[in-house]
User: Fold these one by one.
Assistant:
Number 1:
Amino acid sequence: MKVAIITNTTYETIIPLAKSLSKFCKIELFTIISSRGSGKAILFEKSDLLVKEKPSLVLELDKKGYISELFNEYINNSFKINAIYLKSLFYLNLGNLFTYWQLIKYIRKNTFDIIHINIETPLLILLKVLFPRKHFYLTIHDPIPHSGEDDFQKKIMRKYLNYNHGFNYIFHSQFSKEQFNNYFPNAKNEIKKVIPFGPHDFLLKYKQNNIAVKRGNILFFGRISPYKGINYLIDGFIKAKEKIPYLNLTIAGKGNIGISINNEWKDINIINEYISNEMLCKLIQEAEIIVCPYIDATQSGVIITALTFGKPVLATNVGAASEYIKHLGNGYLINSKSAIDISNALIDLYENYHFLQKITANAKEYFAEKSITWERLAQITKEYYESPDSR
């Protein structure tokens, strides 16, 4: 079975899946990139691909030296990696036509049995029209956009998916599946399967043995956006620090913070820039708690990364958070839009430090207790590919 996986998101999840699937199928991964907002740099750190190549279909990135040594070591030649290098991530841009033409020729020549698209992209429409007899699998991450993140392309995709059939859907949570059913009633009879996230184990390659946890160190990391609830986090932290003075908060990620930064804030470190894998892992290793104060969400890759590193998560109970976090088990769930709840949770955890240590121990065992491995998830995905009900 030959499978083409097309993605520009959640590399921490799709890469280990592709690696494990390669034991059963012939896999080629196509990563969508652009010089104006490329795909996540997990593949391309320290790479000059965007400088040396022109927008086109760039084949076999590993043989051309375009991916990092650590990543090459991790995948160990288990699958081929290609780049769909677009002039613009606005998919209707006419400058992308040459790359689309190359991609279509390549797919036709290589006769893939499965096209698995790991992003809600208008490119799906083009491929579905040109290859109507192929089996299409579509992983839906966000059935509806997060607050403040809707755009023209997402509106096109919502209309298309609601009125066009013949897809096999994958969701990473029961919540996102139910949300999809609610917002896409015309697609209620489409084939759907929930396959949970596996550990982001590639990032563990960046762990350093000489980095210790810092007492009272609280970390927020990830892309900064209005729906992330940063203002509630800062207000809640300041309130908690009045009672637990040794607390420290780090906010690491690129984006618009949305509030004025007060230079008099004590022990709040804001790193408002792209965070490399090396820096991210260092910050996580030093952290005692990871916080996700989101206003809305589907499922969070941040939560999965935290659990991969054995870190307990303080999160708002929105989206699928409760499917991955057990309150007072491997984390702490609170109401959204509440600085008071954040403050009270931090005070509770640090005034009962033995309890924080207990949920930390539970977080370290999360994937083992759930028997979630990439081998098992790949087997489930393979069986879904081969299902007689698939379209």
Note: Residues 254 and 272 are 5 Å apart (CA to CA).
Number 2:
Amino acid sequence: AKTYTAGLHASATPSDTLGVYRFTGTGLTGDALTPHNEGNAVPNVQFASASLVKGGGSLLETRATNGDNNLNVMKWSNAASFNLAEYLSFAVATSSADRTLRLDRIELDMRRFHVTASPKNFRFALFRNGTLLASTEQNGLTATTSFHVAFDFEDVFAGAGDTLELRIYGCLGDSSTTSSQVFLDDIAFYGRVLPYAIGSYTEWTLNHHLLDVAAGRLADTDGDGVSNLLEFALGMNPELNDARKVPFVQYEGGQLVIYYRKPAGLVGVTYTPQSSTDLVSWSPVSGVDTGTTDTDGTPVWKASVPAASGKAFLRLKVSE
């Protein structure tokens, strides 16, 4: 995440509502955590993952009381510091392999507290696939505090197989053993579902500001003799003449070897080294391996054929 801000406020109009975790007052007894998702009219969004991670066990239970229709967390932690093995988890992901989820904002309500000890401290953290992206804390909240919290993000994305997860930690801020009740509700995720996959050709053209004709697979916007599709597949820059990064062939110990760049994380592209003896008929080359890395860290792969007699030619075919 490039930018992460948080505050007890309501700010600018958010983007699309991806979904809202809203509790209906049913199915919340004991350790059960089954929220009702409302407001999710956005296709290609998976928005049904909520859980209670008990860790050391001091987070006693979640329940709904008196028909309040919110999540009541009983005595979150009677400790002076956070137990990071113990939290509430709310997750969102894309359900389509050819879509990317951009998360712009998370909002939630913490409606009121019934406590006899203070202060009350909370940590809110955003994870992607279990890796922390950003976190913030709200500390010293009193027994009568109710607030709306909002988190704004920039450049937080989830592709196929990725999960974005909000974790909420809490503690009383002292060693008191008195009971605490915290009410949570309306945990809303805002963002956009982008019409391309992370690592796709479409994302690459947008990142390089290639539009219309300039975004075509066969276009050569920088005039270096390499088409856009090849530039994408080889990890080249379509705005810079960097033709030195194209595949090259050399003779090594009785083998004719082709070396080519193959960036990690690209999707929808296939690399096929091919050989020929007459430049007319071409066949796939077996025995491909990872070789080495280029000076910029891009993996370099290689394929080879025997060059004992006659003519031999090698080329790389790139296709979608």
Note: The two ends are 30 Å apart (CA to CA).
Number 3:
Amino acid sequence: MPPSPEDVARLVNALFTVASGLDRARRNIPDAAALAVLQIIGTVDRDEPGRGVRPSELAQVLGVHRSAITHHLHTLTGAGHVSLATDPNDRRSSIVSLTASGRAETTRLAAQGMARFASFVADWTPAEVNDLARLLEKFERSKTSAAQKSHTQKSRTERENNP
């Protein structure tokens, strides 16, 4: 039996309340956009050490225009967290890499974030934390599947209407 409209409404309300709270908290972080750039570079550095990131890649991941990244890179370079080098494959572009200071900062930020989330669930049991994580992961898979089905149906309808 599928969930009732009331069940779905409760889920939607809870998700929007949590998302809104996270968004407000993120906006209260000084220079949050520059920190988001730093975290993306840190993820690439962790997953593919030495690769570096083009500013255009950062803009694409963050969903902003490349010019918006320039300011954040100047801030991070000034703080000593990233270095810029000319891309050897395209001398018009740069490669952004973490410095030792940037690695330390991403580690510090990750620990700070984990401590903050740990405080949210401090009075939960490990089973409750794992249940929520499992259900959120299931929700994400269901959301992705529904979006794919919708896209497939839309494409099929367009083909049928425009032979």
Note: The chain is about 70% helix and 10% strand.
Number 4:
Amino acid sequence: GSQQMIGAQGLGQNNPALPWAPMTMTAPVFPIATDPAPSLRTELAATLQRIDGWGSGAWREIYRVWRLRGCLLSIDDLEAGVSRDDDDRVAAFVIVLPDHGLGAHADVSQRTAICDWVLRLAWSTLLTDARITVTTHRPGAAVRATNACVFTAPSAGQKPALLIRLLVRLPLAGMCCDGKALARFVRRIESFAADLNLRKKRSALSAHQRSVAIQQALRRALADHDLAAFIGDGSLLARGADGGPLPECRAWRTPKADRLTIDLGPLGKFHGLGIRRGVTAVAGAPYHGKSTVLAALAAGRDDHPPGDGRELVVADETALVVQAEDGRRIKSTDLSGFFTHLPGADSRTFSTSRASGATSMDQFSARHRGWLPTAADRRRYCRVKFSDHRSADAPITRSRV
């Protein structure tokens, strides 16, 4: 009854076919505000000087967009509590460089390489020794796209702008705002932006882009050569504690009989080992690099920066890693049924804090399956010569599996 009454008194009377019609929207009393114009850097300097020594709540005075030298800086408060302490305020800093001198690239992989290089440069120059707590995404061993540094969508007649996102813990002197410390960091941002705005030849950036371009081209060439992966000569596969190449690692060299050449045209010719599609077995004694090769192939799905050592190791993008639990701790375990000799250890009482893949699997078999091969088993199964996995008449023996 109430709905019919509303319809009779409202819009329903304009349409006799309907008992009632929805009410039209009236103009809002308070129109939605548009993005404000950026404030001047002189006003930011005056604001930081004015709130220096005030309570932490005064940081709300800087939450807006500022026009600095060579860039725009957006400062916004982070809600949902990055920290549970009300006095510990974390702000989101977004640096926008509309006139950067890094060029405009339509290729997604090249734009990803540029953003990765910018983040590495920011960590080495802007964030190091900043004297306040500031962070962003730290690039690792792979070159990947992140939202910490992106290019904006290009507008009509303008090239894409570069965005860099930071998390900054607003500095406090005791329980008061430290405006001077934040002003020093703002000047570091201006210096960092001025360097990126210079249109100059950057050898480090060019090497970064070329490395990614070569890896992308090698990965596309795998299908043409019926390969699942490729290891280029000169690669450094062993990893150190910091994730970089092991200092004493030897460069990869492919035997002449197995050497394959991939011609990438202007990017050059590259020699190495091509791993065919199908089943490939990697055999060898413990601690002789089997897991190292497999780990490098698994990382070949991603691009790597110059100096990583695996710039010429690529794998098919659909590669999937399925592995045993390596790196486990082994203490006083008898592995003599599998190995007669282990480097630097006694196989009868083997102990290590970081086992290889082979010793991890053997330790699992010895402990949980209760089976250990005897000396007769080793003579029976381990003296079979390895044959080509593509040979149809090759017997499937225990050692080959």
Note: Residues 1-13, 80-84, 377-401 have pLDDT under 50 and may be disordered.
